[in-house]
Amino acid sequence: MDSSARCSGLLTDKYELTMLAAALRDGTAGRRTGFEMFTRRLPEVRRYGVVAGTDRFVQAVLDFSFDDAALSLLSEFLDPSTLQFLADFRFRGDIDGYPEGELHFAGSPVLTVQGSFAECVVLETLALSIFNHDTAIASAAARMVHAAAGRPLIEMGSRRTHEQAAVAAARAAYLAGFAGTSNLEAHRRFGLPVLGTSAHAFTLLHTGADGELEAFRSQVAVQGVGTTLLVDTYDVATGVANAVAAAGPDLGAVRIDSGELAVLAHQVRDQLDRLGATATKIVVSGDLDEYAIAALRAAPVDSYGVGTALVTGSGVPTAGFVYKLVEVDGRPVGKLSAGKQSQGGCKHAMRLARNGTVVEEVVYPAGRPPATDAPARGVTVPLVRGGEPVAETGPAALAAARERVTSGLHSLPWEGRKLGRGEPAIPTRVVAGGF
């Protein structure tokens, strides 16, 4: 891979740079602007979203640059003065937004980027690609965590998506409450707990008359009796018997990856108990989504492995965010296009609660919160000032985000946490005043 393919500045669309070139030529590039990222509506099957990608975006902004190879590529359509601007580019503006793990709704000002038009416009695609992906995954993951009702979930979808998207998806799932991932790069890059034992191929490799038992004994010899043995390569009942024979009654867990999972889980639990493996846990996997997980609540399942549905957003692969210019030199601007209107002016948000339950999100002109008698909590926080990050990042921020998801979901009205279709969990009210 050549250096231009790795250059962070090229993670953008051509029209951002052609707009930049025109603005530099006509003198508008330096005008003070505010861009806002929001979604006009939640997807039909979502009653809330979970913000994810903030930490990754802030780091990407710090790294956003154009090396010599990238500038050579861009010289095909950009003039020398624009190329010089990009050669010296560094974002020096301010960014506010919702911290990771915060819930969002239609119209929530999830991200506000302020600076010159030139430095803000080139960040559009970067912001949208990170937040639309990570938030979609985190929103699906949060629904799965809720459906699991306290039972752990393992992210194992790397083979069902792009290799780099897999790493980001693992992080977003962990942020939303998953216990760990199978992805080693996510473990290296973000410190996520990494989990995994073996696949059906290892059992099939042992082709003798007692091949399954031999495979299990081999796995136990290397990983210990606390390992998880995959028991559905052939016959599940025989697989369970071989698993206990190989590891003894202290076997850590068995995994079922196919069939009628609820029925099989009951049968396997009964068989394990009869074999004396009363503490052996049952892990299930195989095309699970939040609805399948919810349907297994009454089954003796101890944890879930989730792949395809998770890394594709469980039917909602993008959060639907847009990135729009809302302010120029302190004056609100907005689109009037049918069905694509934008509300002018930079905005912040707060949540109002009653008896510990959130009842409303209030969006108001930045820096001018409205008076209220109800308990209120500000949602918008500073992320970057003068091009430098001011919010916590790294493992501590990820841990705080996990807690934020949990507390946010607990604060919603109970009907807002249901998996079925419906209105957003809480209404959003926009306070007029300078927009």
TrEMBL record:
* Superkingdom of source: Bacteria
Which Pfam families does the entry mention? NAPRTase, NAPRTase_N
Q: In which pathway does it act?
A: Cofactor biosynthesis; NAD(+) biosynthesis; nicotinate D-ribonucleotide from nicotinate: step 1/1
Residue ranges of every copy of the Nicotinate/nicotinamide phosphoribosyltransferase domain listed in the record: 154-346
The Enzyme Commission number assigned here is 6.3.4.21
Q: Which family does it belong to?
A: Belongs to the NAPRTase family.
Q: Mind telling me what this protein is named?
A: Nicotinate phosphoribosyltransferase
